[in-house]
Amino acid sequence: MDSAWAAFDTETQNMLQTAINDPKTVDLDKLSNAIVTQSLKDLSFCKDAGRICYAVVQAEAQKAATSEFRRKLLNRLQQEFIAREETRNRSVQEWVCVVTFICSIFDYIKVNNAPVVALVDPIYDCLFKLAQPDSLMNEEEVDCLVLQLHRVGEQLEQTNSQRMNQLFYLLRDGFLLQEDLSSMTRLLLLEILEFRASGWTLTETAHKYYYSEVAD
Amino acid sequence: MSEHRRYKCENDYKPDENRNKGASRWSHCRKRGADGVLRKSNAEEEPARDQRCSQSSRRPESFTTPESDGPVSRVKNWGDEVEAEEMRSNVRRDMHRYRRRILAADFPQRERKISSGSSDSRDSRDSKESPAKGDMETDETTLVRRQKQINYGKNTLAYDRYIKEVPKHMRQQGVHPKTPNKFKKYSRRSWDQQIKLWRVKLHAWDPPAEEGGDLQQIEEIDFDEIMDFEFDVECSADTESQCPTTNAPSLSLTEDSFTGTPKKMMKIEDAEMS
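YS: structure for the whole thing
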């Protein structure tokens, strides 16, 4: 069993288990809502949520030859996406969860091994928002931004390189011109700039620079 | 700076917009505002124009009804979009497989029976006109439409029972229904007719009749599952009458017509032609 399931209450865990074994008997609408609701509360869960959803989608496809869960999940996600401005104003943490979750879904759920094209522009929209000057002031948001780029940046670029280029204009601008950024933020931005420039990976020396323990 | 693409739903949330005078995306088509006053030229009136979702900007401006907020229903939800992506992707994959199979058939090698996929591999040998690439249907829209029609048929209990009962190698031409080959070139009418005949033949494998509950199925029709309206279905209960009644055989809506055809997904029933 996935350790991430521990985040759920018992009822949801049972629903989840049943969904994997016998998707037709479960209220998939309820299940998808439960998963989304949990993700919006819990950032560490978000990253695993994609994996859980993937398991259910697979189970449904193989055992029932339907894709109801995927459909419900995506539509619910779309609602969250549409309401993102309000969410961000209400709670930056929740906003960050929304973005993380959508990217996690994008990472795990594929259509015949290809990324879900319908999610590409929405994700870019979110990343553009995170790259705005006011968002760069929040370390939470910067953290989210670079994390998502690490996870799905390459796939996003393959599907739409023009928007990735535009995003990186913003990141360079932010790094160079925005004076009141914390040094942590500058570090994260510099790292992601290098990461992409090396083809979505870090050279060994760069990796040492950013990730090694500093010996005093 | 970066473009910020906005979704149509967001454009609806403009509480301060004065509908009588203010700019809307259709303002410039109208000579007068809703309050009757002649509009000035539209130079100042389209602040939101660039931010319009690309979906609406594709359509010519004069096309829309001025009063409404716009065709909100046109924005697909992600669920639908992904289903459409998946369908297109499946069709493309089928196309590659089919091409390979055809090319293999052109060479005098012993051909292995490939069970999955859209067409019987005997097609090319029997007909002696193995469709060269030029003769193959490749238009994605057409293929997707045909695949949907095939899916409706394959999604029935009758089909399930059929394939369990008669393995492919036991199938006899003419006796056993054969799924139409979506990659062959056919006219629309011809294809629709083939589908119709195929589905009628499949009824022979309908599960045994259930008592009483069959008329219910008419009320339970899920209109989302209805096939293209040009499809020549002898629909009877459908008073919206999407089908031309001229060439449909006269249909008596007796209980018998719907006997024994419970389906996995509720949809319009093909009447049995006896």
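YS: worth flagging: Residues 1-111 of chain A form a domain with the Serine Threonine Protein Phosphatase 5, Tetratricopeptide repeat fold (CATH 1.25.40.180).
IM: good catch. Also The interface with chain B takes residues 67, 70-72, 74-75, 77-78, 82, 111-112, 114, 116-119, 121, 125, 128, 163, 166-167, 169-170 of chain A (CB under 8 Å).
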